[in-house]
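Colleagues,

For the teaching module next term, I've prepared a clean inverse folding example: a structure given as tokens, and then the sequence designed for it. I'd like students to try predicting residues themselves before seeing the answer, so please don't circulate the second half yet.
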């Protein structure tokens, strides 16, 4: 019971007004999508706001309102603003105001999901949000198990952890034997089924650990870097990259050949929405191939980027086969417009979750669990864990699937428009077809002495890789005067110039057989317009023209 006269909401209300005013003031100070001047100027401004040359922790403070107002204004002025249409580099969405407000409520109450008595309502909210998302994926929500994570990196780690546990158990030598054998994993599979009960506990932990370490992890060459890092962290040393096709999707035939060279248990990681191109692997074909493998294979799908397409009636079918995965990673701080973190990890059943079983006397004693005081301690690698599902629940109730789906469709439409603009401009070259909301392209400079072409502003209806005559002309140029290196350096310089001036935030990556430098738009702002996207691309091209002219002898 709150003591008489104690009204923490009153204190918060006053400070919230300070915060909102400071956010607006900082945005005016910035005047664009990110601060100008580059790292040195930003660092100087941050240190000044933190009280330099004095100590950050002074003997006496400045007071709550003064410190909050000054530092929030500095943070706002020194941030990249994903709500600005010219900020389009990363999978970094402008969060919904209602989700931000819901996140504030969680911060004010400060619950933790490691025991029921720290988060009575939060415990149920998380399980219900996970059930709703499991249903969206195509799992049976009454059987699915999951957790809210910090994002795709943690979710992918969870998939590798549970998958390695299950597949490693299948690969471990049977009791009394010294090596894994087909009889061991076939016997387990036939006795327990694909999603059956855990196998006998008599297997030696040392041999199981060795068997897990020997498991191959097959992942797309275009997959997220966290897959390799997570596998190495878990001691899964056999990481096998699988080739991709021209559209950046995992090549199923290459996966078939790789699996054929390893007839035993394994892990396969597919991707639904690659970071650079937004490509979606052929999930149904991969799932069919995995099922046909003679040994158990755990299929994890990293849908951190593409999972948001499930909200869209138009795009959801592109994730066909997702429901056949043994585990799935989703991120709602991408195409879900949540403040980070809002990652999701789901499995169709409880298979493998015994790897995280934990009974701790002060958190989840058995008698309290039996009595209904459920703890989610065994659902995460973390102990203290805030109920980030709350902001998702509020968003779902506030917007519903139709509005969320319309927002996804808007971002997809913006990407298709961008592809048409790129294709129409002979100074720009599209590197991959648009699948979701990512546009991968590069600037191609004119020959020395040649003036940039008059683009005329046309935007033909085309969203695939361009095939206009200029492409052949540019290809012939690449054979002369070592233009490849020049083009790479020029595209890198375009991004740097835009960042330095605070004019725009565009992404940078490499693509193609030679790892050429490319630029990237990741369009996650449903409030942006076609005109905004056209203006951003025009700015990129104009900056390229300026830099090319500066570098011409």
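(Answer key — instructors only)
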């Amino acid at each position: 019971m709150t003591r008489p006269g104690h009204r923490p909401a009153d204190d918060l209300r006053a400070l919230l007004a300070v915060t909102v005013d400071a956010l607006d003031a900082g945005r005016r100070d910035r005047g664009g999508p990110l601060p100008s001047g580059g790292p040195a100027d930003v660092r100087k401004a941050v240190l000044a706001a933190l009280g330099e040359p004095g100590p950050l922790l002074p003997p006496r403070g400045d007071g709550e309102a003064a410190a909050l107002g000054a530092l929030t204004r500095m943070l706002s002025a020194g941030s990249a603003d994903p709500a600005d249409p010219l900020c389009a580099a990363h999978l970094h969405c402008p969060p919904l105001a209602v989700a931000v407000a819901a996140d504030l409520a969680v911060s004010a109450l400060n619950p933790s999901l490691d025991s029921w008595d720290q988060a009575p309502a939060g415990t149920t909210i998380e399980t219900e949000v996970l059930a709703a998302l499991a249903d969206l994926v195509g799992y049976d929500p009454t059987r699915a198990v999951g957790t809210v994570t910090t994002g795709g990196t943690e979710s992918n780690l969870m998939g590798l952890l549970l998958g390695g546990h299950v597949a490693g158990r299948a690969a471990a030598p049977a009791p009394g034997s010294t090596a894994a054998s087909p009889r061991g994993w076939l016997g387990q599979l036939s006795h327990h089924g694909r999603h059956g009960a855990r196998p006998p506990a008599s297997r030696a932990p040392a041999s199981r650990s060795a068997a897990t370490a020997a498991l191959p992890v097959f992942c797309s060459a275009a997959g997220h870097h966290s897959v390799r890092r997570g596998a190495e962290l878990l001691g899964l040393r056999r990481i096998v990259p699988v080739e991709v096709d021209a559209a950046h999707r995992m090549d199923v035939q290459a996966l078939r050949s790789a699996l054929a060279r390893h007839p035993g248990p394994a892990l396969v990681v597919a991707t639904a929405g690659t970071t650079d191109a937004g490509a979606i692997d052929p999930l149904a074909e991969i799932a069919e191939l995995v099922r046909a493998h003679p040994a158990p294979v755990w299929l994890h799908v990293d849908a951190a980027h593409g999972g948001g397409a499930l909200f869209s009636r138009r795009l959801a079918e592109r994730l066909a086969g997702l429901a056949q995965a043994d585990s799935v990673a989703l991120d709602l701080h991408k195409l879900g417009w949540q403040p980070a973190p809002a990652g999701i990890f789901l499995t169709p059943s409880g298979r493998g979750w015994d790897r995280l079983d934990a009974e701790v006397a002060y958190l989840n004693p058995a008698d309290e669990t039996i009595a209904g005081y459920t703890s989610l301690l065994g659902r995460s690698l973390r102990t203290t864990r805030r109920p980030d599902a709350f902001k998702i629940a509020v968003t779902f109730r506030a917007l519903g699937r139709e509005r969320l789906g319309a927002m996804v469709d808007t971002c997809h439409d913006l990407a298709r428009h961008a592809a048409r603009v790129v294709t129409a401009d002979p100074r720009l070259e599209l590197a991959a077809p648009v699948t979701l909301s990512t546009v991968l392209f590069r600037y191609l400079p004119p020959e020395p002495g040649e003036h940039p072409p008059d683009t005329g502003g046309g935007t033909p209806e085309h969203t695939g890789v361009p095939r206009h005559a200029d492409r052949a002309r540019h290809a012939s140029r690449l054979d002369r005067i070592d233009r490849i290196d020049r083009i790479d350096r020029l595209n890198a310089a375009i991004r740097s110039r835009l960042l330095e001036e605070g004019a725009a935030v565009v992404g940078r990556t490499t693509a193609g057989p030679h790892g050429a430098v490319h630029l990237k738009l990741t369009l996650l702002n449903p409030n942006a317009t076609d005109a905004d996207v056209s203006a951003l691309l025009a700015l990129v091209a104009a900056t390229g023209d300026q830099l090319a002219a500066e570098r011409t002898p």
